[in-house]
Amino acid sequence: MYNETLKMLRKLFLFYLTLLPLAGYPATQIITLSNGDSYEGEIRDGIFEGSGLYVWASGDRYEGQFLNDLPHGTGTYQWVDGRSYEGTFLAGKRHGIGVLTWSNGDKYKGSFKANRIEGQGEFSWANQDTYNGEFVANLRSGKGKMRWHTGQSYEGDFLDGTPHGQGHLVYSDGRQYIGEFAQGLRTGKGTLYWPNGNRYTGAFVQDNRTGLGVIHWRDGTIYRGEFFENSQSGWGIKEQPGGQPEIQQWRSGALQLERILVENVTCSLSHMGRQWMFDSTQCINGLAHGTGLAVSLDGRLLIPKGKFILGQMVSGSVLEIPEVDPDTSISEFGSG
């Protein structure tokens, strides 16, 4: 009786298996399409659904999960050119977390959205350069950290693949820059540190020290004034430890004029709430008179060619000399 019952159960089980595909359950099949593509895997109601392998006539292939005839879920896509992607898919597109590898050894691991590298991720190049941070539309954009195989590194803001915004750049020769960038170049306000202890704080344009700035030499000497293309160029104030401030005029790194900043009692000048030194041979009754160089005794304002009548300014442009910046150490910003 037991054997007869067992035989009956087996027959019912086999009969039930033959009905599964008809009842909407997936069945594994091998299909070759008219365009030369082929599919081997599960099919439900005539639709690729479940696990399968799709091979294009071109040589590309995908193995993984399908839904509604499209890669959906986890899987691996291999291109005929040697690229490969392993990760998650959504409605046929790389979406979610995955690893994309190029035939030359470049590799990206991180977030994808609609086939694009987007979100947080890590990119490593075959030459050992690395980037860890945010991406938008396949490009480094947002916050991130880049390390080059040369030893150079950058941490900060990126836009469209280049440093843009606020950042910290460490050069392979030991120099460091903390400040603003625009399209990969130092542009805006920033501080450049040299390994020997010198530093510059001020304006940068297209990677050059250009505009108003302050340079500190390691011996304590300070220059506050105008720069152009990395050289002192224009007017400025030089101060040495224990010395009297000096007014200087430079042209492309060559000193043109130098004067000690000291009040000229024969050409007294009070202007803009400050006392000034005025350099002229035309002064009258001890008052600034004529055309000449005027510099406030606090070293903050300078009028290169001011015209005065009996201590009153009638024409001239005022140049504001930058103040001495705070004594900052690179350690305050991290090592980069």
Q: How would you portray this structure in words?
A:
- With 336 residues, this protein is mainly β.
- The chain has 1 helix and 27 strands.
- It has one helix at residues 2-19; strands at 27-32, 38-44, 47-55, 61-67, 70-78, 84-90, 93-101, 107-113, 116-124, 130-136, 139-147, 153-159, 162-170, 176-182, 185-193, 199-205, 208-216, 222-228, 231-239, 246-251, 254-260, 269-271, 274-279, 290-296, 301-309, 312-315, 319-320.
- The protein has a 21-stranded antiparallel sheet, with no helix packed on it.
- Strand 3 and strand 4 (61-67) form a beta hairpin.
- Mean pLDDT is 91; it is low at 1-25 and 332-336.
Secondary structure: elements and pairs:
Layout: H1 2-19, E1 27-32, E2 38-44, E3 47-55, E4 61-67, E5 70-78, E6 84-90, E7 93-101, E8 107-113, E9 116-124, E10 130-136, E11 139-147, E12 153-159, E13 162-170, E14 176-182, E15 185-193, E16 199-205, E17 208-216, E18 222-228, E19 231-239, E20 246-251, E21 254-260, E22 269-271, E23 274-279, E24 290-296, E25 301-309, E26 312-315, E27 319-320
Antiparallel strand pairs: 1-2, 2-3, 3-4, 4-5, 5-6, 6-7, 7-8, 8-9, 9-10, 10-11, 11-12, 12-13, 13-14, 14-15, 15-16, 16-17, 17-18, 18-19, 19-20, 20-21, 22-23, 23-24, 24-25, 25-26, 25-27
Overview in brief:
The protein is mostly beta strands. The chain is built from one helix and 27 strands. Helices cover about 5% and strands about 60% of the residues.
- Quote the beta fraction: over 45%
- Return residue spans where pLDDT drops below 50 for at least 5 consecutive residues: 1-25, 332-336
Count, helices: 1
CATH topology of the domain at 20-108: lipopolysaccharide transport protein A fold
Kindly provide the radius of gyration, computed on alpha-carbon positions and rounded to a whole number of angstroms.
36 Å
- Through-space gap between termini: 82 Å
Q: What is the number of E strands? A: 27
Mean pLDDT: 91
- Sheet of most strands: 21 strands, antiparallel
Helix content: under 10%
SSE topology string: HEEEEEEEEEEEEEEEEEEEEEEEEEEE
Structural class: mainly beta
